[in-house]
User: Fold this.
Amino acid sequence: MNVPCVTYPKMKFFVTCFIIWICSVNSQTNENLKTLQGDLFASYSSKIRPVINQLEPLQLDVSFYLSSVNEVNEVKEKMVTTGYLELSWTDELLKWTPADYNNTDTIFVPQNDIWKPDLVLKNGFKKFEELGGSFYYLYIDYEGFVVWMPFSVFESRCSMNIFNFPFDIQSCDIKFVTWSHFAEQIEITKSSKGINFYEYEENAVWDILDTTSEIKKEGRESEVKFTFKLRRKSQYYVMNIILPVIFLGYLNILVFVIPADAGEKMSFSVTVFLSFAVFLTIISTLLPTSSENIPVLAMYLVIQLVNGVFALVITAFQLRLRHRDDSEEVSGIWVKAIRLQQKLRCKKMNTVKGKPFDSNSNIDDLKSKPKTDEILDVTFGWNHVASTIDFFAFWSFLITNIIITIAMFSVAAS
Assistant:
């Protein structure tokens, strides 16, 4: 059967009319919104808590969206974060039937036009400030559900425990409280979304390990607390402070390797001691002034300073002994120390006619001596005393330094 082509435009026309008749199109106009807002706010007051029964508390939901951790200042004990709060509640005085206003089910109004909770940062570093601003708009649906999202930079106090610096983990809180209203009037019942991340940018110094939210009621006060568990990135401090300090600690031991006759022992020891003092000054500027939590690193530096003082004292005493007159006899206690040093070093020394020589000396020289020149008791000079002091001081400081270094940084990194 052949169907004329002229029938196709007619069929399209009838199909279009049928679709338009079935699917009616609603268009919200300015007049609809003006009428709706005029009816809603004709007798509305932003000074009255928006519940019909004023004996019932208003349920407030608070969530936090974090954008970045800008700064964690250990000296001032302050944390600076950027983000916004999402506050939601039901305004029982802002309800309407969408069908009466051309199916308008949501509106946006400036924050100062309606009632909003007086939520403030409780542990703020500065004075109390109002959240949001006059340019913020609030979302309202036909059931009176209101959403307010004030964005801000929050500066909050944070007590620091810097014992394990720079391997420390800090727990910082951001607390919000309804300042003027009691818990019987505004009740923060939950934080349905807790802490979320909104286009989060990582901090160069701190990693976020965990986040929690908690609702607290103390007396007649309703409070929500957001907790951030932060771990310091220690690579910078390891490379620029810890490793130089450890190397300086071992350089301090090398003062006992320099011969007493070289004339550089005291100047070398003083230089290393002053280097430790400089590092201790640098670290003190990075940490808060506190007598409760002294960092392990600061204690390690103090121990190294004490070692430096001992090294200076021992070196001065050693040089004093080394330059004694050779006619003065070496006391018995020093002789015992020298013999012990020789045994530990597996070294044997003898003397001919009271003059010390090594057992590796030319044996022909010994054979050529007359029998009266027999091997006598070993005698020592003050140069042997200085060498003995270097030997025992070197190994004592080395072993002590290794033990202290391993113990200190194992505690700090645990």
Notes: Residues 7 and 13 are 10 Å apart (CA to CA). The mean pLDDT is 82.
